[in-house]
């Protein structure tokens, strides 16, 4: 057998690639388009919780994108207390394979990929589901993915007011300072949930709660707003779905199963079902369903994270790495 080689891109390689906002959005949108055209396979994520005392778990995401000729498996750890050790709460590896032979194509540090693709899904969802004139963002959470949520939302909407809040004062202050420097505009740090989200055009809930707790009140949501909750533990009231004109998800098969997620109880109690679900984002991207149709529509977009987004963004990074001569070739067999 001839030698089998695969590419390894470490965190430094990913950073040096410096994909710009447009490239990140384009790659993730291509994954959504392939999903909408039936050119993908996506399996619901599964979880591994080694020990409840560790206050964390692993997510394993799996998928296949035919136009890219790649299958992929990502393993991402989600450990809430990592900040106490000076580590990111979410660290990940993405494995890409030739779907025809099963041979490895690449292994990538997917920590930044996870952050970028999550922000891209949030922003692409907003492109189709928020009002075109949306200017005020209320963002809960300062986790790694939060930065890319705000950065890419601002790329699309050129926000005039950005409010942020998180559980720890030091984290929200550092988060706001980074955003203000990178975006070149002021960022408002709030001391509570209500002042962050009340009346905002776009509300993103990316909190990190140890257990479900309804901290985001339905009464604070303005008519015509887009609400994007994606925390691991639910932070919303059961009544939140009652005020929505449309509820959109990234993948219904994934959202309706598993023990985690912002709308877990809504699914379990039947408030969110195939009957009450408007559709998946990919259906809107390919034009099978309209997104926002009226300015006064109040819409909820719940995304749990797509393996397809990881694969598509990983493929874009591999392509640029080859152009720049970055990464290592490692022998597999």
TrEMBL record:
Where is it found, in Gene Ontology cellular component terms?
cytoplasm
Q: Which InterPro entries does the record match to this protein?
A: NAD(P)-bd_dom_sf (IPR036291), ODC_Mu_crystall (IPR003462), ODC_N (IPR023401)
This chain belongs to which protein, by name?
Answer: Ornithine cyclodeaminase
